[in-house]
Design brief:
5-stranded mixed barrel, 193 residues, alpha/beta, Rossmann fold
Length: 193
């Protein structure tokens, strides 16, 4: 462990392939994530993959499934404050490395929001209706990465599903831990590829 500023733990070391690897918590939401990635870029990060959780917006996703974000619909304030339009794309090359490493994952559009549960329970129709899943950090990270010319991609695990009434089902702790390990392995393999 090399960092625990702001309660956000960071680890750095050598990956199995001999390259340097840093794993850094970003906190919840776009503002915290944007600050952390900006500071990592100042420290020399050359590419990044966000790994985290999401809520499923389509019935084809189940708890524990992996989702690869090809782009994010920007329904958050941070990406908009950073100059984003309606959508931001993930880095294509890094995203394709994720797709090759996790062929069973669903890849497509996600939506980044500021209010996770309130958005999940809202049934109003928006452009986000085409999104596979929702989360709170990807759009901000894509914006920071694009501005600094640093490739950023996003790999998520479905931690929450919602029925037609908006009632939530949450992944259990052991399934989340197993999925987190799987995500980490996929991300490290994609970075090495």
């Amino acid at each position: 462990m090399f960092n625990h500023h702001r309660g956000l733990w960071g680890y750095t070391g050598t990956a199995r392939d001999g390259r340097s690897l840093t794993i850094q918590a970003t906190g919840i939401g776009g503002p915290s994530s944007a600050i952390v990635l900006s500071e990592l870029i100042e420290l020399g990060v050359r590419r990044a993959i966000r790994v985290g959780t999401c809520g499923a917006l389509v019935r084809s996703l189940a708890l524990g499934d992996l989702v690869i974000a090809r782009e994010s619909i920007c329904h958050d304030g941070t990406s908009r404050a950073l100059g984003a339009g309606e959508r931001l794309a993930a880095n294509a090359e890094l995203t394709e490395a994720l797709v090759r490493t996790a062929p069973a994952a669903q890849a497509g559009t996600i939506v980044s929001v500021d209010l996770f549960y309130e958005t999940a329970n809202s049934r109003r129709r928006t452009a986000a209706d085409e999104a596979l899943a929702m989360e709170m950090e990807a759009a901000a990270l894509f914006a920071v990465g694009a501005a600094a010319d640093v490739p950023v991609a996003c790999l998520l695990v479905v931690s929450d599903t919602f029925d037609v009434s908006g009632a939530r089902t949450r992944i259990d702790d052991s399934s989340l831990a197993a999925a987190s390990e799987r995500m980490g392995e996929v991300a490290v393999a994609a970075l090495a590829g």
